[in-house]
Amino acid sequence: PTRCWPGRGQRRKAVLLALGAPKQERLAARGRQLTPAVGYASVGAGLDFLAGNQTRAPRWVRRLALEWAWRAASAPGRLVPRYARCFAILPAEIAAALRQRR
């Protein structure tokens, strides 16, 4: 079996997770509960970019901060529903942030 959490005497400081959303976020949350001294980073498709399996958006798209839209257009069946769920919670998050500022 694969060990996910550091054992006694092991001192991992960081764990990179590339499982895809929302699995990697859930695992990171659980890891922070079990091992609060360890940092967890959800790198998602970062490994695909490093390996050359995916290409980044053109520079002009990145400058406009629209790389998310470029990626959604490249894999709509997988990414559009995910991004739609994120956008659905955005109004409530903005309202909560504005309330905290008062």
Automatic annotation (TrEMBL):
Molecular functions per Gene Ontology: glycosyltransferase activity
Ribonucleoprotein in keyword set: no
Keyword Endoplasmic reticulum: no
Keyword terms, alphabetized: Glycosyltransferase, Transferase
PANTHER family named among the record's database cross-references: PTHR34136, UDP-N-ACETYL-D-MANNOSAMINURONIC ACID TRANSFERASE
The protein's name: CAZy families GT26 protein
Source organism (scientific name): uncultured Ruegeria sp
Source taxonomy: Bacteria, Pseudomonadati, Pseudomonadota, Alphaproteobacteria, Rhodobacterales
